[in-house]
Amino acid sequence: MATFVDHVTLHLRAGNGGNGCVSVKREKFKPLAGPDGGNGGHGGDIVLVSDTGVTTLLGFHRAPHRSSENGGFGMGDHRSGTNGELLELTVPVGTVVKSEDGTELIDMVEPGMRFVAAEGGIGGLGNAALSSTKRKAPGFALLGTPGWQGDVLLELKVVADIALVGYPSAGKSSLVAALSAAKPKIADYPFTTLHPNLGVVESGSTRYTIADVPGLIEGASEGKGLGLEFLRHVERCSALLHVLDCATLDPGRDPLTDLDVILAELEAYPVPEGQLPLLERPQLIALNKVDVPDGRELADFVTPELEKRGYKVFEISAVSHEGLRNLSFALAEIVETSRAEIAARPAPPRLVMRPRAVNEKPFVIRVEGGTYGNVYRILGQKPERWVVQTDFNNEEAVGYLADRLNTIGVEDALFKAGAQAGSTVVIGPEGGIVFDWEPTLTSTAELMTSARGTDPRLIKNDRPTRNQRREEYFERMDAKAEARAELQRERAAGIWTDDEGFLVKEGDDEA
């Protein structure tokens, strides 16, 4: 069973906002005392919090699906719905949060950092909040918006001062156990270490952490072995300690060859932008296993060559603890120097939150070609949210949506884009609301006197115009004249006479 996980995909679903309430207060002698529908509650957010007490992402590996509470529905008597409870997820310090497409969202390198990974939905307003002096009794309320739903990637990069790198079975885990109180798994076969091991070392007044990175082999930067999975844990270290095996029995291997292979892999590994390349950081050499006679002889042979390259070399034994004290103090000196350099750096620029410009439009209109003509797509945070909040089964709510869109200039922008009456308009991205646009001359929802829950603008007006009434009158008069002429022709033909009850005016008889 896995005990250390440094890469996981979280499936998050933030809480939905509650719907607003439509209610009218009813009291004795006041059957309609005014709207009193409450607002819906907001959905709960999902927040990631960095914590030094957490060292692995194992909990998310076992339970990757997380969701927060929904907001409650609004109720009558001005009672608002309850807000969904906030869900906090603790992650290790050094966790990088990325979007589903790999874009880095935040690097949580300090304890106590908070990041809203999934934002809860907004509660809808009740009819009490929508009422005004002109709209005294709204027959509708706004719906709650859904919370954010999607995937985020968590990638853990160990935060340590010193990184121990080297071939498998070079003795890195044994060195961590000898320098600190950590108890990593130690065995006499390669790739014993399957995850980084952290240890805390105290040298005099200096306290620092060391990380045992799993063994690297040739081609690790290209994905061979386990190197590519764990090389990222070296990114945050201030210095590198190369642990070279002086008692290896593998043919074709020696400390100098091993060092050249590791250096090539470290050079090929790309670090994030803004960080110092791995080979430009301080590096020390630890020739391990000098307690073996052949190991000490080989260490004495390669030490001059390594010092000639500019490295500071220490001959050590993780078993007998030989040379560990000098190595520990040398590492502490490097850590103190690195910390002093970091403290002397100028503070990073502060994030400045700037309000949206006054002249910035809240939406854009994109003209798209279609089979039956152009399609006008409206994209913007406000229009898209308003559409989600609208109950399309309520005509008055649809009219309120039209008024809101007209307020921010949607109709004028459609005219400028070339839209005409009957043009197809879509609000939102793929899968948005589609309707045939019917332009209005003015916004009159506040002056309507129709029944609650209805909007006369959506009712088809069949009242004929004056020209239509005139044409209908002339057609009716012509039909009557034609009928009289037909009766006269039938009388002349002898089909009927005056005695049958048909009254003929004087002068209408034929000569």
TrEMBL record:
<dbReference type="GO" id="GO:0005737">
    <property type="term" value="C:cytoplasm"/>
</dbReference>
<feature type="binding site">
    <location>
        <position position="193"/>
    </location>
    <ligand>
        <name>Mg(2+)</name>
    </ligand>
</feature>
<feature type="binding site">
    <location>
        <begin position="191"/>
        <end position="195"/>
    </location>
    <ligand>
        <name>GTP</name>
    </ligand>
</feature>
<dbReference type="GO" id="GO:0005525">
    <property type="term" value="F:GTP binding"/>
</dbReference>
<dbReference type="InterPro" id="IPR031167">
    <property type="entry name" value="G_OBG"/>
</dbReference>
<dbReference type="InterPro" id="IPR006073">
    <property type="entry name" value="GTP-bd"/>
</dbReference>
<dbReference type="Pfam" id="PF01926">
    <property type="entry name" value="MMR_HSR1"/>
</dbReference>
<keyword id="KW-0378">Hydrolase</keyword>
<dbReference type="Pfam" id="PF09269">
    <property type="entry name" value="DUF1967"/>
</dbReference>
<dbReference type="InterPro" id="IPR036346">
    <property type="entry name" value="GTP-bd_prot_GTP1/OBG_C_sf"/>
</dbReference>
<dbReference type="InterPro" id="IPR036726">
    <property type="entry name" value="GTP1_OBG_dom_sf"/>
</dbReference>
<keyword id="KW-0547">Nucleotide-binding</keyword>
<dbReference type="Pfam" id="PF01018">
    <property type="entry name" value="GTP1_OBG"/>
</dbReference>
<dbReference type="InterPro" id="IPR015349">
    <property type="entry name" value="OCT_dom"/>
</dbReference>
<dbReference type="GO" id="GO:0003924">
    <property type="term" value="F:GTPase activity"/>
</dbReference>
<comment type="subunit">
    <text>Monomer.</text>
</comment>
<keyword id="KW-0963">Cytoplasm</keyword>
<dbReference type="InterPro" id="IPR045086">
    <property type="entry name" value="OBG_GTPase"/>
</dbReference>
<dbReference type="InterPro" id="IPR006074">
    <property type="entry name" value="GTP1-OBG_CS"/>
</dbReference>
<comment type="function">
    <text>An essential GTPase which binds GTP, GDP and possibly (p)ppGpp with moderate affinity, with high nucleotide exchange rates and a fairly low GTP hydrolysis rate. Plays a role in control of the cell cycle, stress response, ribosome biogenesis and in those bacteria that undergo differentiation, in morphogenesis control.</text>
</comment>
<feature type="domain" description="Obg">
    <location>
        <begin position="2"/>
        <end position="159"/>
    </location>
</feature>
<feature type="binding site">
    <location>
        <begin position="317"/>
        <end position="319"/>
    </location>
    <ligand>
        <name>GTP</name>
    </ligand>
</feature>
<dbReference type="InterPro" id="IPR006169">
    <property type="entry name" value="GTP1_OBG_dom"/>
</dbReference>
<keyword id="KW-0479">Metal-binding</keyword>
<feature type="binding site">
    <location>
        <begin position="288"/>
        <end position="291"/>
    </location>
    <ligand>
        <name>GTP</name>
    </ligand>
</feature>
<feature type="domain" description="OCT">
    <location>
        <begin position="355"/>
        <end position="439"/>
    </location>
</feature>
<feature type="binding site">
    <location>
        <begin position="212"/>
        <end position="215"/>
    </location>
    <ligand>
        <name>GTP</name>
    </ligand>
</feature>
<feature type="domain" description="OBG-type G">
    <location>
        <begin position="160"/>
        <end position="336"/>
    </location>
</feature>
<feature type="binding site">
    <location>
        <begin position="166"/>
        <end position="173"/>
    </location>
    <ligand>
        <name>GTP</name>
    </ligand>
</feature>
<dbReference type="InterPro" id="IPR027417">
    <property type="entry name" value="P-loop_NTPase"/>
</dbReference>
<comment type="similarity">
    <text>Belongs to the TRAFAC class OBG-HflX-like GTPase superfamily. OBG GTPase family.</text>
</comment>
<dbReference type="InterPro" id="IPR014100">
    <property type="entry name" value="GTP-bd_Obg/CgtA"/>
</dbReference>
<protein>
    <recommendedName>
        <fullName>GTPase Obg</fullName>
        <ecNumber>3.6.5.-</ecNumber>
    </recommendedName>
</protein>
<keyword id="KW-0342">GTP-binding</keyword>
<dbReference type="GO" id="GO:0000287">
    <property type="term" value="F:magnesium ion binding"/>
</dbReference>
<keyword id="KW-0460">Magnesium</keyword>
<feature type="binding site">
    <location>
        <position position="173"/>
    </location>
    <ligand>
        <name>Mg(2+)</name>
    </ligand>
</feature>
<dbReference type="GO" id="GO:0042254">
    <property type="term" value="P:ribosome biogenesis"/>
</dbReference>
